[in-house]
């Protein structure tokens, strides 16, 4: 059975962008394939500590897992939920892969370049982050790794490391699918990227200071509706999906489609040519506040005990699978 694997960092409460761009597509994919694939959903908590964490990391981790359940993840015996730091093989394989990867290829990672800004005070974890991510993936022979477009470069790096390793030692790792195949498998034209409500050229981000730029998943639904009503649009006066020239309006159309699980094309044609941005905002505000009301109620209904039970099973499974793979790698290097 092939494996689909994904993780989402849980450094804080997540945004509507994380919900629509990551959680929701992942849950839909998992529910569609969980009869015929292993579905590994893990919390990369060791990746969290490369930067500041809002609040308590342990609480954030539990909340993130509840998010998946509240979005509607159906758990069967093929679905495995675990925390990275509870499976020591991740860090161990990371070290070994450090000795396979080159400074050159790791230094080229865009996220590292952006986050480090060339500063010597940047922690080594930020640099090494993609290698740990490669370990996360390769330990489980994952073929599909549904993630946002900002992570595609890390998948390519993972593929290169796996191929280099296999060339040297034989077929130990499954090489994950190419980015183009990942996109096809996810069934999206390219990564979904929900925009900042005030500056729609940018991605919606929890680290943006302005409150009205972002919708947090714990926002009061009425407050979220107000944020949509105050979203930046443009002065062209015609509703059209055009991310380049009309990113604000296009973002609203995108949100409307995703929240209602409607094809984007359908939403676009309903609104095409309309001139009243206020009407569109009102509709999207209703959709988003309805979704949040429903989501928050579901979230409140999930207990910590439920999560710990899933983790216990998931971590037993992941330690077995990852431990066996690590042993193969250790043998290849004559460490065992
Ligand atoms: N790097 C991912 C992010 O920041 C999180 C992550 C870590 C991940 N390891 C992974 C995602 C392995 C998929 C597979 O969003």
From TrEMBL:
Keyword NADP: no
One Pfam family hit: tRNA-synt_1b
InterPro entries noted in UniProt: aa-tRNA-synth_Ic, Rossmann-like_a/b/a_fold, Trp-tRNA-ligase, Trp-tRNA_synthetase
Annotated EC: 6.1.1.2
Keywords: Aminoacyl-tRNA synthetase, ATP-binding, Ligase, Nucleotide-binding, Protein biosynthesis
GO molecular function: tryptophan-tRNA ligase activity
Top-level lineage group: Bacteria
Key word Acyltransferase present: no
Family of the protein in this entry: Belongs to the class-I aminoacyl-tRNA synthetase family.
PANTHER family: TRYPTOPHAN--TRNA LIGASE, MITOCHONDRIAL
Protein name: Tryptophan--tRNA ligase
Gene from which this protein is expressed: trpS
């Amino acid at each position: 059975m092939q494996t689909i694997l994904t993780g989402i960092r849980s450094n804080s409460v997540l945004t509507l962008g994380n919900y629509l761009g990551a959680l929701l597509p992942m849950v839909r994919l998992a529910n569609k394939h969980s009869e015929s694939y292993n579905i590994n959903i893990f919390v990369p908590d060791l990746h969290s500590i490369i930067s500041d964490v809002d609040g308590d990391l342990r609480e954030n981790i539990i909340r993130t897992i509840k998010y998946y359940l509240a979005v509607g993840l159906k758990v069967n015996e093929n679905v495995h939920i675990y925390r990275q730091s509870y499976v020591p093989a991740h860090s161990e394989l990371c070290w070994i892969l450090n000795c396979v990867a080159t400074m050159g290829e790791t230094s080229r990672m865009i996220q590292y370049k952006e986050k480090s800004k060339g500063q010597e005070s940047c922690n080594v974890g930020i640099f090494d982050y993609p290698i740990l991510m490669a370990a996360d993936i390769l330990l489980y022979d994952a073929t599909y790794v549904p993630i946002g477009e900002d992570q595609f470069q890390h998948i390519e790096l993972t593929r290169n490391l796996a191929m280099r390793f296999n060339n040297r030692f034989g077929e130990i790792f499954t090489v994950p699918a190419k980015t183009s195949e990942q996109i096809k498998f996810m069934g999206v034209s390219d990564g979904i990227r929900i925009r900042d409500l005030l500056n729609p050229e940018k991605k919606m981000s929890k680290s943006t200071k302005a409150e009205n730029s972002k919708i947090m998943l714990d926002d009061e639904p009425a407050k979220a509706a107000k944020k949509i009503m105050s979203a930046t649009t443009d002065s062209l006066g015609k509703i059209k999906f055009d991310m380049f020239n009309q990113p604000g309006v296009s973002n609203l159309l995108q949100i409307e489609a995703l929240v209602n699980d409607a094809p984007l094309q359908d939403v676009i044609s309903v609104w095409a040519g309309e001139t009243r941005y206020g009407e569109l905002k009102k509709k999207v505000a209703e959709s988003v506040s309805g979704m949040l009301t429903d989501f928050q109620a579901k979230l409140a209904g999930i207990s910590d005990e439920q999560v710990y039970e899933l983790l216990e099973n998931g971590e037993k499974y992941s330690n077995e699978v990852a431990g066996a793979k690590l042993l193969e790698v250790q043998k290849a290097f004559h460490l065992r």
